[in-house]
């Protein structure tokens, strides 16, 4: 068994080491060295280590073989150079799901693009009225715009291109209309029908929000459209596990079925439990967390059949190997990683923690030990991936444990009864509604508390490994368990002290890629400034992820850059306070709404209309408003001058020629045409356009003047620091990838 454990760990480590250049070769070398050392010490495990090194090397090749690649006729090869409508034919792969923008997204198996034969998996979004009645297997044609998915354009941003590639898709389609190719086609039976029935029955009896939550706790949030405000509230305070089908539901299913069949023959009992697990997998889909839980459930049933005690840690390792042999790309899945780490924490830490809490009532001990153990083992990965933590996580889990247990069990029973006697389930609906509503209210209450989430900044992979080493040391070496508090203090110091030191000494300006909207973040030795368009989408997917990655919990000053964008400022204020918000109120339409002003007042900030000639100073950063209409703002950082020109029309540019514009090394503008004389006066060394394209005449003139040109919408976010100068986010990704 020792050899199986070593080889299994070598395989998993071999997959993970593919992130490092020559990672497989390094593992092979380590295995050979360990084998030589074993031979010299006359141990018998030299062969085990040598084979382990070889397995680690081969694991990398296996991952490459299993990584999806577009075929010669993949739909991604048909993406036109210019935007135009294209008709794609194929079949619906899965039920449509609601997106945040109110459209429906689905996976589509392509057979043709226009009249040409094609293949591949396509990510499609459609208007809700067009897609809501579609079902898996339905043959249709979709008309819309075919596009190439974007890579990660900002630090902390979402890599849409990588996400689709891991799913085996290399193109997207923004559909406008569909056409049924067979109006008489009827759906074939599938698990999706049962899923739909469960969701429909729960929402009809409990309401849209409560019903969706119960359905998610039964069959998993990946197949249920949970309201986004509820999903965000649960994620913010560490209750996301309640919305995911996992080991908790498997434990309930096995517990109930074993209790109901305890008087039946062992073969019948095991058969009923196995059937229950298979049905559960069918309803939830092949998700990593579900398969992990179900396979461990089958391990328990096998132990029951042969009357042998199952070793949980060995079972967990074997399950991990089986899943990674079946789908090696799951090594990078956060769902897979969090699921196994949380389970490992429950197996390792809960028993030890329960002994220390034996002075508490027996019923309370698991409610405290389980969330603490799961948080401890998943926190380093959470900090590495998101850089954010909720101080109320353990308390929220402690308070809601009973509710989650009751709702999950009652929901499973309700779903089963709905298929047999729907009338009885309707009468029992209030019993399920009030606990579910109470769970939602509790989650939202914690989200409204001050400091509900704290950004500490994302940590490096080296620090993450160091933190896990400190977590594992007391587990591997029992003599160190009494010094657990020392490991805790060292771990916290490694996270918070370097982060505080870096932020307090950082002078950095970041121009974010935000859909051709002006967004800049200025970090000045702990003080943070923001120039933001206020666009809600940009705030949600660009600004906030960047601020979380950088560990920013407060904005000292902010400038509203565009009119009628108050929704984005509301979202920003819900996440973190703004001490001073400056508004170009000289425009005909005020930038922010009264609601935003009231939010600022509640958060002890101030709202200040900007006037021409106004100066704003914060630390070593100074801003001067040279003009409101047209908008011309000069930002001085470390004796370097940035000039922001916002959508200047030709007439306004001529008026601006008389302004004091000389001495600005960096120009930041929308990419529109600039007056030739204006460029001659400015003579910038660097020009940054927050757009995909730059007007040809302006581009030619800048090239003649030997201006360094950047386009954030094409090259990704641009960062400037005093020591390193300018760097694009894509260049950072390449350097990070080579380091990792």
Question: How are the secondary structure elements laid out?
Answer:
Layout: H1 2-16, H2 23-40, H3 46-66, E1 85-92, E2 97-98, E3 104-113, E4 116-117, E5 121-126, H4 128-131, E6 139-147, H5 160-166, E7 169-180, H6 191-206, H7 208-219, H8 228-236, H9 247-260, H10 266-284, H11 288-306, H12 312-326, H13 334-356, H14 364-385, E8 388-389, H15 393-420, H16 422-427, H17 429-448, E9 454-455, H18 461-476, H19 484-505, E10 507-511, E11 520-524, E12 527-532, H20 536-549, E13 557-560, H21 566-575, E14 580-583, H22 594-602, E15 606-609, E16 615-618, E17 621-627, E18 631-637, E19 640-646, H23 650-656, E20 666-669, H24 676-682, E21 686-689, H25 696-704, E22 708-711, H26 712-715, E23 718-721, E24 725-728, H27 729-739
Parallel strand pairs: 5-7, 12-13, 13-14, 14-15, 19-20, 20-21, 21-22
Antiparallel strand pairs: 1-3, 1-6, 2-3, 3-4, 3-5, 6-7, 8-9, 10-11, 10-23, 11-12, 16-17, 17-18, 18-19, 23-24
